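Each lists sequence, tokenised fold; shown next:
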Amino acid sequence: MQPTMEEFDSEDSGVQDVGPQINGLLVQILETMSVPLVRIRQKLLEMAILICVILLVFWVALFLYGSFYYSFIPTANFITPVYFFYRTDCPSPHHSVCSFPVANVSLLKNGKHQVMTYGQPYRITLELEMPESPANRELGMFLVKMTPYSKAGQIVDISARSAMLHYRSSLLQALGTVVFSPMLLTGASEQKQSVIVELYSEFKDDSYNPTVGAIIEIHSQHIQIYRAHLYVFAHFTGIRYLLYRFPLISALIGVMSNFTFLSLIIVLSFLQFNLGGRRTRGKAVMQQEENNEPDDLNDQSEPQDEGNAPGCNSVEVEESIPDVGVEESEDDSRELAEDEPTCEAGDGEMILRNRNLSQSMLQSSQALTDTTDKTYYRVGVCSSC
């Protein structure tokens, strides 16, 4: 059977009835979910702000520790090559070297910054790579002299140390040559010795004459040297020793200490700010209550004053309709207005002047000049005394 029009209408009306209910349900769901969503959003915002503050404090603590470490720990070691030079214009043909090998070494990092810090002891050594040649074996002991100087060219100190090659017998040299012959043939090894000369065990730089360079001189004309290096090592003690020898533990302790200190300052500042705001609010509330107390007392005393003031309790309305001609002058109306009773009030009372009433009456009298009868309304209004 085909559905009739009435059935279609009933179905449409049912759908129309369900639509508002669904809309109302959706509105209720949105209203109920809006409050938790706002709270969740507020919590997420507070967590994001807290994380940002923690990261900022951590980076500030790391920066403070890095600055302290860079300024407190001097240069631990400084290595520079030493290039010797000598004279060859000898008057005697028997000697090819006319002077001792001399080298001028700069003790400035990158030619600008000083290597040594005032008051810090340093160990200065010279390393010489010397071949095991017959000339060096026959040389025996030789003298190495170091003379540091300041920027003005003044001599700061003088140090002289002796050195020589380590002794090796001819048999030991022959066995070593046989054993290491493959490496010697390929060039991976050489027949040489490294002679280390300790020039200063604890050298302290002078704050008035800082050292900028040194002159190194070897007192031997027949010495043979492959290459030479000057080493400057800082001899740390106390806190500097701990910071240099245990860098990771020191960094962890230093950063955490700075982080704790900065966090404590921020928390105390936040608490002081909140307490100060609460105190100011409490003072404002107390002042407001103190200001409201006299007003309440005045409000309570007003009914008693009103009962004692005669003639000011109610609104008086008087009407007078005199049978007077049109030719009354304005002076008469002013006199009538001035003769009206006034109510003088004390503190807290409102006073209505009769002159305002007279002006309104004058305007009404001018509007009624064409009429035969003229009406005057005298109205006296007095507020609460």
Q: What stands out?
A: Confidence is low (pLDDT under 50) at residues 301-354, 370-385.
